[in-house]
Amino acid sequence: MAKLTVSDLDLERKKVLMRVDFNVPIKDGVIGDDNRIQAALPTIKYVLDHKGKAILCSHLGRVKKEDDKKGLSLRPVAERLSNLLNKPVIFVPVTEGQQLEDAIAKMDDGSVLLFENTRYEDVVNGEYVKRESGNDPKLGEYWASLADEFINDAFGTAHRSHASNVGIAEAMHQAGKPVAAGFLMEKEIQFLGEAVNNPKRPFVAILGGAKVSDKIGVIDNLLEKADKIIIGGGMTYTFYAAKGIKIGDSLVEKDKVDVAKSILEKGGDKIVLPSDNIVAKSYSNDAEHKVVEGDIDDGWMALDIGPKSVQEFEDVLKDAKTVVWNGPMGVFEMPNYAQGTLNVGKFLGTLSDATTIVGGGDSTAAVKQLGVSEKLTHISTGGGASLQYLEGKTLPGIAAIDNK
Ligand code: ADP
Ligand code: MG
Fold first, then answer.
1. Whether residue 384 lies in the annotated active site
2. pTM of the predicted model, to two decimals?
3. CATH of domain 188-391
4. Catalytic residue, candidates 361, 368, 375, 392
5. Per residue in 133-148, pLDDT tens?
6. pLDDT tens digits, 145-175
7. Which of 56, 163, 181, 203 could pair with 322 in a Cys bridge, judged by C-beta atoms 3.0 to 4.6 Å apart?
């Protein structure tokens, strides 16, 4: 169903509360990768260009005790945002109260304010009360009272029901005020939603990563929807075990062999497994390694798919119109076992006729690190959230946005 978006709102002179995802890595007050701040810019700029008053909020890290707050202030983010926008950002070092309300009352049209880490509310008077992450309705109500409109642009937390996304949205509904998706959220819903619910066919899913157990929900859902499912990465070898192929010392989840068996039965020739692998003497980049087809001998562990598998996968992928990829094909963190992931990524980049989508925390990191992300259609900004989307679940943060 189409969601209300920021471009549907009348923003001029309005107090526009925006939930963004500024959960960036910060060490000793210095921001590492500022991708998430950059990703929020289009919606923020749009609100400012349309003379709204942008009141931003976000969580940062996890606050479980008073002491955690020190290293988790959003102040450095306000400074970085100010540089990126090339205009002042009012930073309010609290999450509620007079100081915040006064600062908002003084805002000019087209100005921007960021208040402190919403998860500061998880610890009150030294007690871990989870007002934010437990979605205390009073807190959502309070934040909603600060604004005329609410925009949720934090896809990364859409799978969680917190006060700063769901709580605010519910209180806005109660008060008859609009709740819209930001551009980033809109894009995620558009690409992931289309792929899962209304894909151009053939629709091929590539599933890899470490464990079958993490991905059962995704496999189950996509088994119904995709035309082919390519399996790679560490979970391959649990499927090997289910088929009676020897796996040597490769990663295996013994208690999931039966699940793998039933997936194989249900999927039939929809499921494509790698036929060869890079096997190594130990879990190390410098270990002796070689390519083997089929059975893997004891004393060897598979850490990547082999070159023949890459070709076979390419053959399945070449006619695809929609590709969803979650989970690296091997231990891409080690250069000697990154080839499978790299080559699959490169090939996807050549499919000019297909919509190619990557979801998942490590998968996103992998395509970026290996330099293949630019040519793909959509790299999801939410790890856990994109997985839950691929599982076909309703994400509470999205459900709470108004339909058009
Ligand atoms: P995502 O976060 O994208 O959902 P996962 O967390 O499921 O992905 O999987 C990523 C991890 O899987 C990586 O750290 C990678 O090293 C590991 N992995 C991939 N292939 C293998 C393998 N053959 N053996 C062990 N680990 C693997
Ligand atoms: Mg992961």
1. yes
2. 0.89
3. 3.40.50.1260
4. 361
5. 999 999 999 999 999 9
6. 999 999 999 999 999 999 999 999 999 999 9
7. 203
